[in-house]
Structure formats: structure tokens, C-alpha cells
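INFO batch 0412 | record 1 of 1 | parsing
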Amino acid sequence: MRVFIIGSKNLSVWMLNTLIEQGHEVIGALSRDLEPGMKPWLNELGHASLRDECKRHNIPCYEGMNVNSDKAIDILVESNLDVIFSCFWGQIIKQKVLDIPRLGIYNLHTAHLPLNRGSRPIPWAIIKGELYTGITIHKMHAGVDNGPILGQVKVEITEAETAKTLYEKVTKAGAQLFKNLLPSFDPTVKIKLVEQDESQATYQPRGEPFGGQINRSWSKIQTERFKRAFTFPPFRAYRYPPKLIGSEALPYFVIDDNCTSIKLPQPHAQFRQDSIGSKQLREDIRNIIPSEAQNLCFDRNLDGMFPIHDILRQSGIDYCMSKQTNATEWFKAPLKYQPYRYQNGLLEIPTIRLNTADELVSILDVAHRLANECEYDIFIGINPIELISKEDILKQIRLSEIDELTFTEVNQLFDTEYEDISA
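INFO prediction complete | emitting C-alpha cells
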């Protein structure tokens, strides 16, 4: 077969050598070896270079190229390819590229599809407490890891598993799987593929899981899993939320008049998708969000709205206010309304809708007690858009002698340092 490789790290080199060993003609490769993010893999973890291996075999290797660019398409079309194999490639490959090779493009995804489609499947499997992950070879379709499966294997996740140990197990299993399944591409035999069960599919959004930050509401078991999912030296580990601004734990008001109110159109169910959303949906979201706005107050909770989360982060927005409650509900579970990060790292700063200034007195009593018990600061977000009796409430806030923070300042507080676990 006439083959092209799109990939990086050890697995791409193992694929290249397997293709050569089994007598296939590798026409060329797209590599990421020169990207800054590849330096730890090559220099500290000792991964083989796809570029160097191609050079050793006199195979053309292209660097710094978008696979969907006109230049890349010209190269692939002129190569008269039977198949393209892909692994550890960061770009979503568009349909016009998928259609180039006669047999299509086959990707090695480090999960047991249809579970954990999308970004960082190995740490996510640990975070979610799954008993196994795996590696899957699937034919790529337009979308995120949703094409039919050629073959896959399960890889057990032990109780002590870290991202590093699991990555090593999964990629070695992937190399063996690729070697075993390569004979399936016999030109005289139709390739047998199995459609993915969409009802079982799960998806993880782009971005560092929960921004690498532990959530105080998590159980001890959840926190321990999260730490193991971020244990992969020399890469940075996990981080804790902020603890104290001053010398003692205190409540703080979070209020800011400089906010842009965003009203989501009905029906809003379309925004709750386990994917980045369709091209049209993403365009609709971009039209809702003002290009220059930073302090965004949404009219409903953004929990589970992955397409909106993705557009916000891609637009350079680090935080928003969407989880709103009244004083009665806040009293039932005040810790539920502390700032937290969504799955892609976007920071949510929950707020309270106040009816009267008197509600502040009771809220402050509870917040002082919580700060003392928990030994960390408590943030009382006040919805600046829907304040009732605004002047009275603001006057009461000033009289309380509680320090005020802006939403931007809270976001800066939550941008904490990562733990050093290298020792």
C-alpha cells in the first residue's frame, strides 16, 4: 500500500517501522517534532523522533504544516495514497482531507471508544474512576473520534495508576494492535468495520481537565484520582484553589458593575451537547457573545453546555457568571456556590440574587462561620445585573465592612501555582 503518516511521539515511529517491516510504501509523513510542546517528549522522556526516523529511511517528512492547508492537501493528493494513519495529532481533520486516500484515514485514539472521545482521554479515565481504558483504531469521519472501529483492546486501570504509567501501557498496547491489524488492509478483502454505539459515547472537551485545579467540593477519593491523573513528570502537576487572601479566613463580597448580560435564546437544550457542536451552532454562539466583553453574566447555568464553554475559552475568556441562586437556596448549600472550574477549565463564579438588603446580614453570619470552620476564604458573589433595591443593597455592603473583590480579581486568585511533585 501507498501510505502516509500524520503523528508524533513514539507511537508514530513504531507505526512507521511496522509499515516498513510489513512491506508497505511510506510516501511521507507530517510531524510535530519541531513544536515547542514536543521538547519534553523528545528531550526528557526520550521519545523517538518521527522526523529523524523518516530521514533514516529517506522518507519525506513535513513540519509545521496544518493538515487542512492547501499545501498539505496538494502533497497528499499528489502522493496517490491508499491510506493515511494518524496518532497524536492536535488538529481536527476536515472532510476534504478525509476523502483523499482511497481507503480513508485511520486514527489511533487512546481510549476504548466510544468512551472518552475528545481531549486527554487517559487522564479523564483516571479522573472518572473507570476500571479500564484502552486504545482504538477507527476510520475517521467528520467529527470527534466518531468513525467506525477496525479494532481495539482494553487496558486495565489499577488503583495506583498515574497518567504516566497508564500512557505507557496504552501506547504499547496500541503498537501491538497496529501490528496485528495492519494485514487487514489487504486490497483483495473488504475491511471489516464496526459502527460505534452512540448511546454509550462519552466526550471530553478541549482544554486541561478542570484547569488542573482541585475542587473543594470533591470527595477524598475524587481528589486522589485527580492527583494521579496529573502525575506525569516532567509535565506540571495539579493545583489547589486559593486558600487565604490575608492572615485569616474571611468572607468577601464579589461584585462588579462592569458586566455584560448575555441572554441565551430559547430553546437552550441545543447548547447541552457532549461535543464542540456543529459549525452552525458555534457560529450562533459567537454571535451571542460580544467580541470585546470579558465579564459575562449569563441568564442561566452553563453546566453541561460544552459548545459554549469551548467558544468562551477559544475566545480568550477565562471566567463567567451563570450559576445564580436566591438567598433561600444559598443557605441550603452555601459551599455549592463557591467558584469552581468546568471540565475545560473555564472558571464559574456563582452569584446570588438578592431581594432585600436584610438578606445580607444572615448571609454574612453563615459565611463567617463557614470561613472559620473550613479555614479558607468564602466568596459571596452578588449578581450585578438583577439586583433588587440596588442602592439599599450596595449601602448595606459598604456598611458591613467586608472587603469587595471584582470578578476579575477572583479569577486572578484562582490562577494558583501548580504543585511541584518532581521530587
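INFO post-check: Residues 2-204 form a domain with the Rossmann fold fold (CATH 3.40.50.170).
INFO record closed
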